Amino acid sequence: MPKITHLLFDCDNTLVLSEELAFEACAELSNEMLEKHGVSDRYTGPDLMTTFVGQNFRGVVTGLQQKYGFKLSDDEVDSYVSRELGKVIETLEAKAEPCVGVMPVLEDLYKSKKYGLAVVSSSALSRVQASVKKVGQDKFFPPDHIFSAATSLPVPTTKPDPAIYLHACKVIGKKPEECVAVEDSKSGTLSAVRAGIPTVGYVGSYGGVIKQKEMAEVLKEAGVKVIMDDWSQFFDCLAQIEAS
């Protein structure tokens, strides 16, 4: 196996506890959309998070259209995505916190300079930037090594499409097998694995042991190399991948 030189981190609920906050805003606009198209179902933030975790709002909108059989114009989709982004950023700037235990790990990695560090997210770039800045993680990542499937690509997409990981590897000048990704969702894991990147599955942000065990199995099926319950296990997980 080639030497690992770069670490690629998902943002939402991997670096920053942001998914629940973001899906609160998603639910409000999703319900507005459903009502406008005569759909009686309504979603809470947790409902949407269960169904669409790891995807950006454009992916949520696409999923709702497919499920309920209505069609939005490209302009309507762009309008909803723009409104959702503003609501989410406002919430994150007020309430976002780092994932438990991640800050000492990032500090150690940053000081050691052994690995290059990057963020690879489905979320819009401005949202990711707001998240990492709010929790003091922006100092660890070069500004041009924060990547967004919604913003950084010529055609916006979302995980599980591997395009954003392939793009990140191209920009940083590394082959996928020279990197390790850290992901907490099935869609994110599939994105990294399909790009050929060995992946650590992080389940520490899921509430309760039962849910963490369930997600561990989901991520294993999606192709992660090792499961990480807590950020204190990161260096052991990384060593396992490097030794494989």
Question: What labels would you give this structure?
Answer:
alpha/beta; 244 residues; 6-stranded parallel β-sheet; 12% strand; single chain; 10 helices; two-stranded antiparallel sheet
Model description:
Helices cover 51% and strands 12% of the residues. The chain contains 10 helices and 8 strands. The chain has helices at 19-36, 45-52, 57-68, 74-95, 102-112, 125-134, 163-172, 186-194, 209-222, 234-243, and strands spanning 6-9, 16-17, 97-98, 116-121, 146-148, 179-183, 199-202, 226-228. It has a 6-stranded parallel β-sheet, sandwiched between helices. A two-stranded antiparallel sheet has the order 2-3. Strand 6 (179-183), helix 8 and strand 7 form a beta-alpha-beta unit. Helix 1 packs across helix 2 (45-52), helix 1 packs antiparallel against helix 4 and helix 8 (186-194) runs parallel beside helix 9. The radius of gyration is 17 Å and the shape is globular.
Q: What helical percentage do the residues reach?
A: 40-55%
> Ends: how far apart?
7 Å
The number of helices is 10
Q: Strand tally, please?
A: 8
Radius of gyration: 17 Å
Secondary-structure topology with pairs:
Elements: E1 6-9, E2 16-17, H1 19-36, H2 45-52, H3 57-68, H4 74-95, E3 97-98, H5 102-112, E4 116-121, H6 125-134, E5 146-148, H7 163-172, E6 179-183, H8 186-194, E7 199-202, H9 209-222, E8 226-228, H10 234-243
Parallel strand pairs: 1-4, 1-6, 4-5, 6-7, 7-8
Antiparallel strand pairs: 2-3
Helix pairs in contact: 1-2, 1-4, 4-6, 8-9
